[in-house]
Amino acid sequence: MSRQFCTFHLGGNYYGLDVLRVQEVVRNQPLTRVPLAPGAVRGLVNLRGQIVTAIDLRARLELPAHDEREEAVSIIVQMDDGAVSFAVDQIGDVLELPDEQFEAPPETLRGAVRDFVHGAYKLPEQLLVILNPERIVSAA
User: Fold this and answer.
1) Which of 22, 95, 111, 121 has the fewest Cβ atoms surrounding its Cβ within 10 A?
2) Regarding beta strands 50-55 and 82-88, do their DSSP bridges make them parallel or antiparallel, or are they unpaired?
3) Which domain, by its residues, includes 16?
4) Model confidence pTM above 0.85
5) What strands lie across the sheet with 73-79, from one edge to the other?
6) Secondary structure (DSSP) of 72-98
7) Which CATH number fits the domain that encloses residue 55?
8) Count of structural domains within the chain
9) Distance CA 129, CA 36 (A)
């Protein structure tokens, strides 16, 4: 068996999300800040009438803040109770990878980020880290 992943770059790392969870990829949308929201919630986005919570994926993964002068891309991910938006630096390809190459999160992974990683694939050029969107959103 194999699975498909929507891949993206964030803070110099290569990540993936299950393609079945990805609703769409859009250029950065206008953001409405939410007073008193948790630090990982960047705000709300109106996506053609659908209100989507924007999560700061860099903050969740303990990466340096995004340079606001650079244009980000947002991945809209469908969750059980609605959609969420993750801003990423650059969208990658959709990869189909065999289940037998999937590995548990590396033991060297430390800190809060370990809770958000579902596993990894060792690709010829780099490591593809597969994220668990439910854990990312529930921790926000």
Assistant:
1) 111
2) parallel
3) 2-139
4) yes
5) 22-27, 73-79, 82-88, 50-55, 41-47
6) PEEEEEEETTEEEEEEESEEEEEEEEE
7) 2.40.50.180
8) 1
9) 31
